[in-house]
TrEMBL record:
Membrane spanning residue stretches: 45-74, 95-123, 143-160, 167-190, 202-224, 265-288, 326-347, 359-380, 386-405, 417-436, 442-461
Protein name per Swiss-Prot or TrEMBL: Amino acid transporter
Taxonomic placement: Bacteria, Bacillati, Actinomycetota, Actinomycetes, Micrococcales
Keyword Cytoplasm in record: no
Keywords linked to the UniProt accession: Membrane, Transmembrane, Transmembrane helix
Keyword Transmembrane helix: yes
Length: 631
């Protein structure tokens, strides 16, 4: 359980909430590039398998959508969610109460699909590169499963031990990998120039199968969603923003230099990837027979590695394979860090995960076990996992597009509403088409969503009697009230529902409690009022203000949950004064079962017994526990 609240980056690596050491935007780009650039290891082969001879044109459509759609969307996400929360946090702010929480949980299901499949697919592709290498030992052959599981297990070990030097390693891996890919692309293009017959043969086959160029364009628009893996990495790009070095003069509420660096990061990564995607798509389509892209073929899942071995030689090809294996494996590390950023950021705060979900090591064990299960179910097959990966990526980008369109609508930026609305529509089309074409992705995401929702409900019920306040702050007036009464040796707190704000309400409540609860006539009393807020919130910082109303002293606090808040304030009063207070309630009318459901959903219900149970759970010493008196 070490690292229960680990904000320093010791385990969370690139996604820690507070970075120990920040870096220039181009170095952080290498970090997000682990996920983004590593798709070159399998994207050209998947594109050729999905779109055939049309894959270059479908890739051009994908690049256009990247530069004109995803890039502007995430540049705006970077401006509005610069603390690394991403587009999910923007949507969380749009929808209040339980609707927002459930929507976030659903998005987390798709995000979990994206990141988990990144781990398993990258490891499976790394295994494919290792097995297909001509210098690989014979016992590697047909070892996709055990090699993939070994890589995933090593990834888990790394995160169990700690993960601090992610950026330094990422810079080296990305620079070497991109340099080797540049060599492969240049050599491939040179070979195409020297042998133009390959272009002629490709065009003849294309026109024979698909007819006119307009048909090719139309089909490209239809099939490009199958290439959606080339869009991965944008959500990671905004998640790593806290790692970008800003300016000390920038205000915390708008770190201009960090936002500018994030924009450069996203733009540069998108441009680099676009060039490689287009070049590799044309080159591999020209030079590799279509049959070699099929499952079991030498280019399946490793098109650029095939070119490296075929046209440059086994020595260079082996170096290329090693570089690809390392960056694919490290892309899994980036995805694991993303999961370790998302789950502690949302679920425990919602009360929808056990307390141990804040700790890094238990989560690493859980995620590693899930990755093992996914790998076994999909038989460590890259192609079989592509649909699930694309679904997760597309849903996240679609939700981000909707978030920025809604943001533009709120700010009455009509031109941007139209632009982002159009981008949202395109991504909705892309996502829906991908789901129909490859339904396995939505099935896996649905399993993650159901799992998250069930765990969340069970956890919320199980944690319902816990203290939820992460901190309790008493202002000067509140402290004066409590310390003054504690000097008499007793604290009498009257719980009051703040529905009617009139003098008679307070005087009658004080009179009734003194009479029915036997509060001594000379004793001083303090009212405690909890003003309700969003009851779907779970953890919160409480501010208790002392005010005077109609001659009565009142402690006012705003909270999503009444009984847990009353218990937290009573314990804070005890810690301040050294006197265990007594709180006075009236019984709540209604069926106790329905009151319990009201408590779970709205944070009210049968307040007195729940307050007592929360106090019992929080303080086991009866002598130090605040007393609850109900009439």
């Amino acid at each position: 359980m070490k690292g229960l609240i680990d904000d320093t980056g010791g385990h969370q690596g690139p996604h820690a909430k507070h970075a120990e050491k920040q870096s220039s935007w181009w170095r952080v780009m290498c970090l997000t590039g682990l996920d983004y650039f590593s798709t070159l290891g399998y994207q050209p082969a998947i594109a050729a398998l999905a779109a055939g001879f049309i894959s270059p044109f479908a890739t051009i459509v994908l690049v256009a959508l990247t530069l004109l759609g995803a890039l502007p969307v995430y540049r705006r996400v970077a401006r509005e969610s610069f603390r690394g929360s991403g587009s999910i946090a923007m949507l969380e702010r749009l929808l209040p109460w339980w609707a927002g929480k459930i929507f976030v949980l659903i998005l987390l299901g798709f995000a979990a699909t994206d990141f988990m499949i990144t781990i398993t697919l990258s490891a499976a592709d790394a295994a494919a590169h290792a097995i297909e290498n001509p210098l690989a030992p014979s016992w590697f052959h047909n070892g996709n499963m055990w090699i993939t599981l070994t890589l995933i297990a090593l990834l888990g070990v790394v995160f169990l031990r700690g993960f601090q030097e992610a950026i330094g390693v990422a810079v080296i891996l990305v620079f070497v990998y991109l340099a080797l890919n540049a060599v492969v692309v240049v050599v491939g293009i040179e070979h195409v120039v020297q042998n133009p017959i390959v272009v002629t043969d490709w065009w003849a086959a294309l026109t024979q199968i698909h007819g006119s160029p307009w048909t090719v364009v139309a089909i490209s628009l239809i099939v490009f969603p199958k290439l959606a893996l080339g869009l991965s990495g944008f959500e990671t790009g905004v998640a790593v923003m806290p790692q970008i070095k800003g300016s000390e003069t920038d205000p915390d509420d708008y770190p201009k230099k960090r936002i500018l660096g994030a924009g450069r990061l996203l733009t540069t990564a998108a441009l680099i990837m676009s060039v490689f995607l287009i070049a590799s798509s044309f080159m591999t389509t020209f030079l590799i027979p279509q049959k070699d892209f099929q499952p079991g073929g030498p280019a399946n899942g490793r098109a650029l590695a095939y070119i490296a071995h075929e046209y440059i030689g086994p020595v260079f090809g082996t170096f290329y394979d090693i570089s690809t294996i390392l960056i694919l494996w490290f892309a899994g590390a980036s995805a694991m860090a993303g999961l370790l950023n998302l789950v502690p950021r949302y679920l425990p705060r919602y009360g929808m995960a056990p307390q141990w979900a804040r700790a890094v090591r238990p989560l690493v064990i859980v995620f590693t076990a899930i990755a093992f299960l996914i790998t076994i179910v999909f038989d460590a097959n890259v192609d079989a996992q592509g649909g699930a990966y694309a679904t997760g990526v597309l849903v996240l980008i679609t939700s981000a597009s909707f978030a920025v369109a809604a943001s533009a609508w709120r700010k009455r930026q009509r031109a941007r509403v139209v632009g982002f609305g159009a981008v949202t529509a395109v991504f909705i089309y892309t996502t829906v088409l991908n789901v129909f074409e490859r339904p396995d992705g939505i099935r896996i995401a649905t399993l993650f969503i159901i799992g998250i929702l069930v765990i969340s409900l069970v956890s919320r019920v199980g944690r319902s009697f816990q203290l939820r306040a992460t901190s309790v702050t008493l202002d000067a007036a509140a402290q004066q009230f409590l310390l003054g009464d504690a000097a008499t040796g007793a604290l009498h707190i009257i719980a009051h529902e703040p529905h009617v704000d009139v003098n008679r309400e307070y005087s009658k409540k004080d009179e009734d409690e003194r009479r029915f609860s036997n509060i001594p006539g000379e004793a001083r009393t303090i009212f405690l009022e909890v003003h309700p807020s969003d009851s779907s919130d779970f953890e919160e910082d409480l501010l208790v203000r002392g005010v005077k109303k109609y001659g009565y002293r009142v402690l006012k606090v705003t909270s999503a949950n009444v009984p847990n808040t009353i218990a937290a304030v009573l314990l804070a009063a005890r810690d301040l004064t050294g006197v265990a207070p007594t709180v006075y309630f009236e019984w709540t009318e209604g069926n106790p079962v329905s009151n319990m459901w009201r408590y779970l959903i709205t944070g009210v219900g049968e307040v007195a017994p729940v307050t007592r149970e929360v106090l019992r759970e929080a303080e086991h010493d009866v002598r130090r526990r605040p007393a609850v008196h109900v009439v």
